[in-house]
């Protein structure tokens, strides 16, 4: 009974998020902290260390517990050549390292303690990558750049000598590792088809299915931590939830994308008993897809008024059931559960 009650409270919280904090990440007067816009955002697996990137190429690290306390560090002295950062991600097996991608299609590996770039390569198109966190002995990075091949980067060999995966000579836009040590890689093609590859084999796709139709390219792909569900989203605003092995459709949600789209919208997932997806569409939207065998034609969702801009990054902070997003200039917005009593006090 207690577990059922807790699940209902979590569901209520995530579908009733409110803007509870609007926090500057630096001070112009003292010149301390992050003094640029926030174009990229991540948090470590321990939900403690926030990583901020900007269009000017600056990067800052902030402790979550210091948000709103004016305890800022100087941005890192990385030489990123003023390239606009589009995404940023902590290394899942070594918190000293993180990866950035830029508007000029660079992917760079950086050391946060030494504040320097370790390695980098410029690709042909918009970079989508996923770091394999389950193979701790040799964690490889899968990369898609809209080219006709996916790349598997082994840093022991070098970023310039990746393993190549080709699939019918059609551009590949997204990649995602299956959450295990079995070397399975999921890829999404420009024509809406999803495929599974064993990177140790040369036999081609183990399974494939076209689940996105209508010509809108897939821009994001995620797999739930338990490996049961594959979430994909395309530029038409469709979010598709499928079984990871037979690709059978479990849920669909049709949102409204921004007409001013010039970068990948941000998408974050939180897999509890139910699956929650947050995505920047025309408005920031949180969608609930029920777990188990239950299916809904019209999933529950919450469109949050567009206090955040449609092109800003967002993340789930799982331990506190919060959504953290970028905002204007160097501000972060935090969405958390707000009770009716709290709402009345704010009014």
Instruction: Kindly report how far apart the N and C termini lie.
Output: 35 Å
Largest sheet: 4 strands, antiparallel
Give the strand tally.
29
Fourth-tier CATH superfamily name = YVTN repeat-like/Quinoprotein amine dehydrogenase
Beta-strand content estimate:
35-45%
What is the CATH topology descriptor?
Answer: Methylamine Dehydrogenase, Chain H
Strand order within the widest beta sheet = 1-29-28-27
So, CATH architecture? 7 Propeller
State the helix count.
2
Structural class: mainly beta
Query: What is the count of distinct domains?
Result: 1
Mean pLDDT score: 84
Radius of gyration, CA atoms, in whole angstroms: 20 Å
Q: Assign a percent range to the helix content.
A: under 10%
Q: Per the principal axes of the C-alpha atoms, what is the gross shape?
A: globular
Question: At the first level of CATH, what is the class?
Answer: Mainly Beta
Unreliable spans are 1-5, 340-347
